[in-house]
Amino acid sequence: DTEVTQTPKHLVMGMTNKKSLKCEQHMGHRAMYWYKQKAKKPPELMFVYSYEKLSINESVPSRFSPECPNSSLLNLHLHALQPEDSALYLCASSQVWAGGNNEQFFGPGTRLTVL
Amino acid sequence: AQTVTQSQPEMSVQEAETVTLSCTYDTSESDYYLFWYKQPPSRQMILVIRQEAYKQQNATENRFSVNFQKAAKSFSLKISDSQLGDAAMYFCAYRSLLGGNKLVFGAGTILRVKS
């Protein structure tokens, strides 16, 4: 199984709502990533978890709150978002964070619209 | 810091023809990985091909091959016998061997395939 799954596929939320994005992988990977991608742009790294611990936070606003409850699951909690946060949110995973021939496997993404 | 440049925002190719996508990068490191990722309109990003900088031999995956010129810091992707399913955004990416598994992406090239 080389699949990263993400739910929901689409999400529309108001600026006062609280919602969560979910990402799951069953490849035994110990590194998981959140990316934000605007239309026709490359993905921008937001967070990296390594062995369930937050390793990288790319200066992401606190209205985005990541969580890694176990080695297979990654959440992104959203609160008080702005319309400019509307984007495709991609999750990825790799065997480990550092070293080796370490392919990142990407999920299909969640299309987020903030009204 | 490393940078990746894709100078072709859009390319078109006729079905069954060959197309080459350009990528240049800037780094002071001698060992690193380079990747080409494909992101079709369905959004899922998949790895097309990877190249380890210490390997002089150009990587090949079926109809996809690269021309890796280390001294020139060039990493182009050649797609032979283009198919309609090759239509996608293609991202060139760099990964250092130092630190973690952070990818530096180029701006992307939209490839259109004409039937």
The overall pLDDT average of chain A reads 94
- Tell the overall outline of chain A: globular
**Oligomer class:** heterodimer
Largest interface: A-B, 25 and 22 residues
DSSP helix count of chain A? 0
User: What is the N-to-C order of secondary-structure elements of chain A (H for helix, E for strand)?
Assistant: EEEEEEEEEEE
Alpha-carbon distance between the two ends of chain B? 41 Å
Q: Would you write up a description of this structure?
A:
The complex is a heterodimer of chains A (115) and B (115). Chain A has 115 residues and is mostly beta strands. In chain A, the strands form two sheets. In chain A, strands 2, 4, 5, 6, 9, 10 and 11 form a seven-stranded mixed beta sheet that branches. In chain A, strands 1-3-8-7 form a four-stranded antiparallel beta sheet, with no helix packed on it. The N and C termini of chain A lie far apart (36 Å). Chain B is mainly beta. Chain B contains no helices and twelve strands. In chain B, the strands form three sheets. In chain B, strands 2, 5, 6, 10, 11 and 12 form a six-stranded mixed beta sheet that branches. A four-stranded antiparallel beta sheet of chain B has the order 3-9-8-7, with no helix packed on it. In chain B, strands 1-4 form a two-stranded antiparallel ribbon. In chain B, strand 5 and strand 6 form a beta hairpin. At the A-B interface, strand 5 and strand 9 of A face strand 6 and strand 10 of B.
Short description:
The complex is a heterodimer of chains A (115) and B (115). With 115 residues, chain A is an all-beta fold. Chain A is built from no helices and 11 strands.
Features:
heterodimer; A: 115 residues; mainly beta; 11 strands; globular; B: 115 residues; 6-stranded mixed β-sheet; 4-stranded antiparallel β-sheet
Mind sketching the topology for me?
The complex is a heterodimer of chains A (115) and B (115).
Chain A: E1 4-7, E2 10-13, E3 18-25, E4 31-37, E5 44-50, E6 53-57, E7 64-70, E8 73-79, E9 87-94, E10 105-106, E11 110-114
Parallel strand pairs in A: 2-11
Antiparallel strand pairs in A: 1-3, 3-8, 4-5, 4-9, 5-6, 7-8, 9-10, 9-11
Chain B: E1 3-5, E2 10-14, E3 19-21, E4 24-26, E5 32-39, E6 46-52, E7 60-61, E8 64-69, E9 74-79, E10 88-96, E11 103-105, E12 109-114
Parallel strand pairs in B: 2-12
Antiparallel strand pairs in B: 1-4, 3-9, 5-6, 5-10, 7-8, 8-9, 10-11, 10-12
